[in-house]
Each structure stands twice: as structure tokens, then as C-alpha cells.
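note to self: dont lose this again. the chain is below, predicted strucutre after it. 256 aa total, dont forget to put it in the shared folder this time
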Amino acid sequence: MIPGTHVISWLRKLCSIIVPVTMMLALPNPGYCAVYINKTRLIVSEAQREETFIVRNEDTVPILLQTWLDTGDFTARPEDINVPFIITPALFRSQPQQAHTFRLLFTGTKNSLPADREQVYWLNVQEIPPKQVKARNQVQFQMAFRSRIKVFYRPVALSQFNINNEAKKLRPRLEQASNAAWLLIDNPSPLHITLLSLSVNNGKKITQIPQDGMLAPFSSLRVPLVETPEKTGNRLQFEYLDDYGEIQQSSIIVKN
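---
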């Protein structure tokens, strides 16, 4: 599926993690992320055991690309991370205005991961720019930009589960104390569900959701409400991401 306009915008925002490589005294040219990934998330099924993604270098110079997976700690060094996946190539010299296909392969055994729920990892694509020749008496910043997207490993036992169906199974419950109110949202599904926004009775939309809005399988999330709803007869409207990174909408009854 080709990402929509809003997804392309997100792809550019994925370059928000900046890792300084070399510090110098002046910044003659502002840095920018030149690498874009063609997907906002990857789903690796146990049956297929691999997935591909495309990285494009939109810079005017060659850059070195480094790729790896982590388990959620973006500060962890690649050599210290142990995950049942490999990426080929792990290092690649990308020419200007060229796109390259990478393969993500599951290397674990049948019992490496739980069979009753998804697992989430993070794909890192870091661009290392070429070393620039500085002018005399000029000191520069040289930075490496890193993009990260989620990778979901889906066991074969979950092949019949559909994220759109599972999102409708969320169980929101209204809780109140004094003048405060919040929603306790239970996810009875074996899939991760990422919420982008929610509102009660089409009221004020909440976009700042704890845990970046991601509900892990068989977990709960407590969301403070900015408005106190009625005690009964409430309905939750929410936006979530599907398997293609597209925004979907749904609504469900809030229990008391």
C-alpha cells in the first residue's frame, strides 16, 4: 500500500532523533534528515519470517546507512542488543537520489518468542554523512540522523486476527474521584493497538496519551480526561493505526 499524505508527513517526522557525531564551533549549514523509509511500521509474520522495506537517500551526496533493531531503548548500542532478527545489509553506502531495498529476517526458532501474543521491536536507520572539508578558522557540527519505526512480530497462531476487529474489542471504563475523571482502557487482544487520539461523546479530543498511545497485548492504559463526562450513556470515539500505518476511526460504549 502506498502511504497517504499524512503518512508521508510522518515519515519526515521520523527523523526527529538526532545523534551528534562530531562537535565543532559553527554551524554554517543547518542539518536535515535525508533518508526516508517507505513504511511507518513492519509486520513480520512467523509464517513468512521476513519483510522488506525501502530506504531512499534524498541528499545530494553519498551517505553511509547503518541499520539495526532494538527492544525499545533507543540509547542502547547496536553491539549490546540481542534480538532474533538480522537486517541485510546492516551497513550500506547509499548514492544520492537512490532507493535501496533492505530485508528484515527472523532468525529465531519456533519457541523463541511467545506464541499467544505479538512482540514489538524498533527498526533503526541511521545516516552517517561524509566528513566535510572545513574552511580555515571554521568549526562545524556534523550529525548523524536516525529514523525509527516499529516492527511487530506476529506468531502464526494470530494469523486470523485483524487489527480493525481487535480495536473494536477495547474495553474502556469510566472512573471518577472527587473532581477528576479518567478512562481505564483494557486491551483483551493479543495484538498491539496504537491510539492516536480519543474523545468522549465527541468532546475535546485528547492527543497526549500515556505510553505514546500504545496498548500492549492483554494490558491496560489509564488516560486522564480533560472534561468530566456523564455518569452513564457515554461513548468513546478514537483514532488508531492499522497494519499499514493508516489512521482508522472507531467508537465503542464506555462502561461504568
